[in-house]
Amino acid sequence: EDKVVQSPLSLVVHEGDTVTLNCSYEVTNFRSLLWYKQEKKAPTFLFMLTSSGIEKKSGRLSSILDKKELFSILNITATQTGDSAVYLCAVESGGTSYGKLTFGQGTILTVHP
Amino acid sequence: GAGVSQSPRYKVAKRGQDVALRCDPISGHVSLFWYQQALGQGPEFLTYFQNEAQLDKSGLPSDRFFAERPEGSVSTLKIQRTQQEDSAVYLCASSPGLDYYEQYFGPGTRLTVT
Predict the structure, then answer these.
(1) How far apart are CA B73 and CA A79, in angstroms?
(2) Is B100 a residue whose pLDDT tops 60?
(3) CB contacts, 8 Å: A106 with chain B
(4) Span B9-63, pLDDT tens digits
(5) Pairwise CA distance, residues B18 & B79, whole Å
(6) Beta strand A100-103 with A85-93: parallel, antiparallel or unpaired?
(7) Which listed site, A10, A44, A46, B50, has its alpha carbon 20 to 30 Å from B94?
């Protein structure tokens, strides 16, 4: 059974801090790993990672994948209160012709002013 | 609107009632997914459509759950004889194609069964 585990489950920081969120996985026929940000509404797409060692970056957010050790990290630098959300990691498994996602339980990030 | 929309946004049902949840995917998106998200958990896969064909329903928790997408666009998730354990947020997502396309999520329908 495919499994995705995120850590920590929750994190409280102050504005300006840097945070690292972790995601480890065990899936058959790995295709890609995705990060989503979920506020009190739809998860919004952040990154899709398919290759090891290639950092993806968007503003203050960056992410990297290690396919040998089966994990990914999401970094957020200079955090802002607007970064407060649940961050979801999901892995897309193959064996099918479509992207079936298995999600982790999420990391709740709270950024205090 | 360019995004995925879902209706209703909130639904309260008495145990035993049937409910129908609607998803309008992004126009032209081939793939449509339904997920169930319990409080404090990540979304869990329920079922997948490629156009009008339901190719995977392995995540549907029981035969009380039924989904359809008859014309390959709008989809409906129906839950018959609702139980308290069905209380959750039901998320719909669509993606444009079959390979390496991120899924775009709707706002979800929060179902509360009393």
Answers:
(1) 39
(2) no
(3) 40-42
(4) 999 999 999 999 999 999 999 999 999 999 989 999 999 999 999 999 999 999 9
(5) 6
(6) antiparallel
(7) A10
